[in-house]
Amino acid sequence: MKRKLLLIVNPAAGRGAYKQGFADALYTLSQGGCDTTVYFTEGRGDATVLARDHAKDYDLAACIGGDGTLSEVMAGLMQHQDPPALGYIPMGTANDVATTLGIPKNNTVAAAQRILGGTPRPFDVGGFGENEYFAYIAAFGAFTEVSYATPQNQKKVLGHLAYVLQGAMALPKIEACHTRVEYDDGVIEADLVYGSMSNSTSVAGIVKLPEEMVSLGDGMSELVLVKDPGSVLDLAELADSVLSRRFDSDKLLILHTKKAHFTFDTPVAWTRDGEDGGSHQEITLYNYKAPIRLIF
Asked: Alpha-carbon dihedral of residues 154, 157, 162, 165, nearest 10 degrees?
């Protein structure tokens, strides 16, 4: 008997790249024993609604899109007590989750084969406040606005390079904000230019955390804090060291926690999985241990 597969497709992700090989991917899934029903999203939040409303009727779920699409689907699956295992066919620009998991990117057939032959593994999900979620990162500060502030037409033409160019333009505008961070092992109060809570070895497709530092289903997130280096030049040097995977600066803290509460002097803009997360003067982030089984 074939397994019923719910496939949610974001047609706007990856400059519409899903069209290349889409029929072949569906054929691959069918030959692999899946009876696939396809739903297309039309706007932000649709993937969450589709996963929430339909996942209970399927043996497996999967999505085609970028990290934001995966994040929305996970948010929908979080509404279920025992959600189906989730497959991912990455077609976005950064594809951080796919990089972390080693899933073929922008190749629908190869990713479909991974869904068929991969193993469902426990995957932590982040909580953003009380009723919102993130798949792999919530962040504020330096460069975090780049992912959603980069014009869509630039993303379509330049792809990942658009993020790099937008980030370079943002460098002179970076300001530190006084922050109090309460986490599992204590309290840190400092002027920060960046802060995040994540469950990924890849951030923005550029920064790579050591694999031995990150465990995807252990109930612990990586808390990354960057203190004010003092000048744009010092910040650029710190950024260069991080890009080179040198994490020994006294301005950089990488910790592990299940929960982190952030308090700022004034509201600060956040991103969730590369999308606008709104501005918050106070926010608590959580790690929900392995509510999702992600196939890779």
From this structure: -90
Same domain for 143 and 111: no
**Residues 103, 114 contacting (CB under 8 angstroms):** yes
211 is catalytic: no
Do 213 and 241 belong together in one domain? yes
CATH of the domain at 37: 3.40.50.10330
Q: Residue 91 in contact with residue 106, Cβ under 8 Å?
A: yes
Reading the block at residue 260, the tokens are: 């982190």
Helical H segments across 3-140, by residue range? 22-31, 46-54, 67-77, 96-101, 108-117
pTM greater than 0.85 (yes/no): yes
Q: What does the alpha-carbon distance between residue 178 and residue 175 come to, in Å, rounded to a whole number?
A: 10
Q: Rounded to the nearest 5 degrees, what angle is found at the Cα of 50, between the Cα atoms of 53 and 160?
A: 155
The one catalytic residue in 132, 145, 275, 282 is 275
Are 22 and 160 part of one and the same domain? no
109: pLDDT strictly greater than 80: yes
Strand locations in the chain, DSSP E?
3-9, 34-40, 60-65, 85-90, 120-128, 132-134, 137-141, 177-183, 186-198, 202-203, 207-208, 221-227, 252-257, 259-272, 275-295
Q: Count of alpha carbons within 13 Å of 162, Cβ hemisphere only?
A: 19
Q: Which domain holds residue 250?
A: 133-289
pLDDT > 70: percent of the chain: 89
pLDDT reading at 230 higher than 60: yes
120 close to 293: Cβ distance less than 8 angstroms: yes
Give the whole-angstrom CA distance, residue 130 versus residue 121.
25
User: For residue 63, is pLDDT > 60?
Assistant: yes
